[in-house]
């Protein structure tokens, strides 16, 4: 038996909090009866409907994608651009999946996709502080002081970012560019680009090479693989 709002979130109806609002406002029926009590528990034998539409409880699937450039981190795009979900659809994945978080249109690298709403919401919640490591090609020579500022945190929108790990991987004095590795535990809007710009180094290219303990070993740009059961278990323990 599981709480109704958890079942709804895992089925991709809405977040758990939004599901609670749907329940409280009388949009949810269990075995034909409208339920408004948030503590209600249901089993796999119960029929759950939202506004008369049956809840489809899919088997949970988990994928790791190496996102290429010029692909949208979304299930749909109003402008008709290719999305990360399109990549998996083209290879026969037909579950109703969605990305865990986002990577910018021009950013490449590791991205998780799933239909497990509960896990996705946990991984995206700031309090769980999942480490994400990026490789950035930036303008200008990066100094030790710049790296120190990134480690201590920089101010964005009046708030200081949490301490990050940073190191200089390469510097090209002729082209006046640098390669920086940056590990953060947050996920604010354009955070890595804005952090680097705040210390005077606009990003030219950005790649996310790891997410928690997961990396892109053996997965080429535009390719994906299904997560192994032990990896899923470890993600749930983060």
TrEMBL record:
GO terms for cellular component: cytosol. Keywords: Isomerase, RNA-binding. Gene3D superfamilies: Alpha-L RNA-binding motif (3.30.70.1560), Pseudouridine synthase I, catalytic domain, N-terminal subdomain (3.30.70.580), RNA-binding S4 domain (3.10.290.10). Residues 2-63 form the RNA-binding S4 domain. GO terms for molecular function: RNA binding; rRNA pseudouridine synthase activity. Pfam families: PseudoU_synth_2 (PF00849), S4 (PF01479). Belongs to the pseudouridine synthase RsuA family. This is Pseudouridine synthase. It comes from Limosilactobacillus panis DSM 6035.
């Amino acid at each position: 038996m599981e709480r109704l709002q958890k079942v709804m979130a895992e089925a991709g109806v809405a977040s758990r909090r939004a599901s609670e609002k749907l329940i409280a406002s009388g949009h949810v029926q269990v075995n034909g009866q409208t339920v408004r009590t948030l503590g209600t528990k249901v089993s796999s034998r119960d029929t759950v409907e939202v506004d008369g539409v049956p809840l489809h409880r899919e088997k949970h699937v988990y994928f790791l994608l190496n996102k290429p450039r010029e692909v949208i981190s979304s299930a749909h795009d109003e402008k008709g651009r290719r999305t990360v979900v399109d990549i998996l659809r083209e290879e026969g994945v037909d579950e109703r999946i969605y990305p865990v978080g986002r990577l910018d249109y021009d950013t490449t690298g590791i991205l998780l996709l799933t239909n497990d709403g509960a896990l996705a919401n946990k991984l995206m919640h700031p309090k769980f502080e999942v480490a994400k490591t990026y490789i950035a090609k930036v303008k200008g020579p990066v100094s030790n002081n710049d790296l120190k500022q990134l480690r201590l945190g920089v101010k964005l929108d009046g708030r200081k970012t949490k301490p990050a790990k940073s190191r200089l991987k390469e510097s090209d004095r002729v082209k006046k560019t640098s390669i920086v590795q940056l590990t953060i535990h947050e996920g604010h809007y354009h955070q890595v680009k804005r952090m680097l710009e705040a210390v005077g180094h606009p990003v030219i290219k950005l790649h996310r090479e790891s997410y928690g303990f997961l990396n892109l070993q053996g997965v080429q740009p535009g390719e994906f693989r299904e997560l192994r059961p032990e990896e899923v278990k470890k993600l749930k323990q983060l």
